[in-house]
Amino acid sequence: MRHLILLAVAIAASFHAAAQDRALPSIDKLLENYVAASGGPAVQKIATRITTGSIEVLTYGLTGTFEQYTKAPGRQVNISDLKGFGKVIQCSDGRTGWNADLQQGVRQMSPAEFATFQRGADLQSPLHLRTHYKKMVVTGKTKAGDRDAWVVEAQPPEGGPEKLYFDTRTALLIRIERPDQMGGTVLTFDDFKEVDGVKIPLTIHQDGGQADVLIKIRDVKHNLPIDDAKFAKPAA
Q1: Which residues contact 6 (CB under 8 A, 6 or more apart)?
Q2: Closest CA to 85 of 114, 106, 65
Q3: Which of 23, 36, 124, 163 is deepest in the core (most CB within 10 A)?
Q4: What is the pLDDT of residues 79-126, one digit of tens each?
Q5: What is residue 229's DSSP assignment?
Q6: Which of 161, 191, 164, 162 is nearest to 175 (CA)?
């Protein structure tokens, strides 16, 4: 009798798991919805993006201004000018990446750090997630803050798997969790606004890594000329 009970429990668990799998969207459908929610064809028309706003390094009580210049394909520079600390720069010219500040000077990005930075520097990222990650699987549904989200386990070519959270209502990407040497980093995207037909998060919160950082975007401009010199690596 005990064996029959265990068999019944196993069968019930199997049916429950199968029902859960059927309730999940396919990765193809989820990504299709994400592309449409992000702007669809409008995403392809963006060649450059300039964003400006404010930054708070909550860990150290620092505040300042934030500028980001992005130019296809894969060139981006982030400039944080923090009061009492100076400028912190992250940059890629599409081939190599580097960081710089007054305390530590210019430092080359590691291969893994550069690969992660490049994914964020892709202006058409919603269209390219299949190339950014070699494997993507929808694993379940959970809460991301106060929002319901589909969870996707995404394996990049380098490093450990990341978790991507897509809002079940808007289909937008609202959170990324990625492993790192500091125990993991969580990026949260909020306050989306449509600019030239493309949805842009105006609030970006990075929790973990070396600092807890909050970025508030005030202005977004597309397709303005950006000189390639903006992405040139300075002398050490």
Answers
A1: none
A2: 65
A3: 163
A4: 999 999 999 999 999 999 999 998 889 999 999 999 999 999 999 999
A5: G
A6: 164
